[in-house]
Amino acid sequence: MILTKLTQTQATALAAIIVLAILGLYHFGHDQGIGIKSVDEPLSIPPANLTAASIVSAAPIVTNDSNWAGYIIASDIQNPQALVTTISASWTVPTVTISSLDTFSAAWIGIGGYFDSTLIQVGTEHDSVNGADEYFAWFELLPDSSIAIDNIVLSPGDQINASIQLINSFTDEWSITIKDLTTNQQYQNTFFYPSSQLSAEWIVERPTVGRRLSNLTDIGTVKFTNCKATIGTSGTISSFPGFQSIMYESVQSTDGITQLTAVSDLADNGSSFTVETSASAIPELFTWALLPMIIATALSTAITKKRHARKRS
User: Fold this and answer.
1) How many angstroms separate the CA atoms of 175 and 213, rounded?
2) What is the pLDDT of residues 28-65, one digit of tens each?
3) d(Cα 92, Cα 248) in Å, to the nearest integer?
4) Distance between CA 96 and CA 104 in Å, rounded?
5) CATH of the domain at 111
6) Distance (Å, rounded) from C-alpha 140 to C-alpha 213?
7) Does 67 fall in a domain?
């Protein structure tokens, strides 16, 4: 689009609207704690002169991800050490909104997997498949596939507590436990697994199904509570440097992105937060934030069309 022949009034109006669009996006991202950037853009790493102590006292760094939403912590953001030995949390099994498409979602805790390819995790699954909702508990030790836990039968509203703990650092022996506190069902087992121990995660995920990233199930809001970890010392999420991850989906037809989740700030206790997956909640936020840009685009298109019309006449 060429703007060299716009009238002064048109150019001034367009410039003003573009400025408003930039300001609108900036303030929206600042207020919501959301990073407006490409999914493929590298993670925002703090300057090297920031110490671990200063990072802990600051808000978590906001990052974009194609399949994770939640919080990730480590001993250090730039140079994480193999110090994660425990993680735990509680959440409520959400209610699936049945879709005409097959959709999938999981809520889980894990150790490793953010800075490397090892990941030990345990959680719950909530899917809409063939027009019916499905719920089950599972665990996974990458690169192996996830394993469903048959002796726990889940229902929406069940209260879940889960933990992962290093039992023996010399033999890489880990304990995985998940409990359905509502029905008093429990699974506990030990495994030998060479984890990197670099990170701890509390995540809502849209998993890979059949080698393709799945559609995310609308499960409303998932609230994680009592989120604790041991990374040298024991503490809550806010005790350590970390990331707040927000899930986005690339829109190839428009070279844009669509926000799939909203992740809340940590509660005052530093151990609780929510992940919102309801589609109705997220586009509404972006509609207001992007309104100035939409107007600017419409105006520039109208001006261009007028100029082309004059050429044809």
Assistant:
1) 29
2) 443 333 332 223 333 333 333 333 333 343 568 999 99
3) 23
4) 9
5) 2.60.120.700
6) 17
7) yes
Pairing of strands 106-111, 200-205: antiparallel
Say what the pLDDT of residue 283 is. Answer: 44
Token pair for 21: 């669009």
Dist CA 217 CA 129 (whole Å): 10
The secondary element (H helix, E strand) that includes residue 307 is: helix 282-312
Instruction: Specify the amino acid at residue 224.
Output: F
**Is 18 within a domain?**
no
In which residue are the tokens 């206790």 written? 269
Report d(CA 279, CA 284) in Å as an integer: 9
Q: What is the pTM of this model?
A: 0.73
Contacts of 147 by beta carbon, 8 Å cutoff, 6+ apart: 138, 139, 140
What total number of domains does the chain contain? 1
Residue 309 lies in a domain: no
Q: Does the residue 286 lie in any domain? A: no
Contact between 198 and 87 under an 8 Å Cβ cutoff? The reply is no
pLDDT tens digits, one per residue of 268-296: 999 999 999 976 555 444 444 444 443 44
Alpha carbons 174 and 167: distance in angstroms, whole number? 5
* Residues in CB range of 38: below 8 A, 6 or more apart: 64, 257
- Angle 64-204-102 from CA coordinates, rounded to 5°: 100
Lookup: tokens for 226: 């009592």
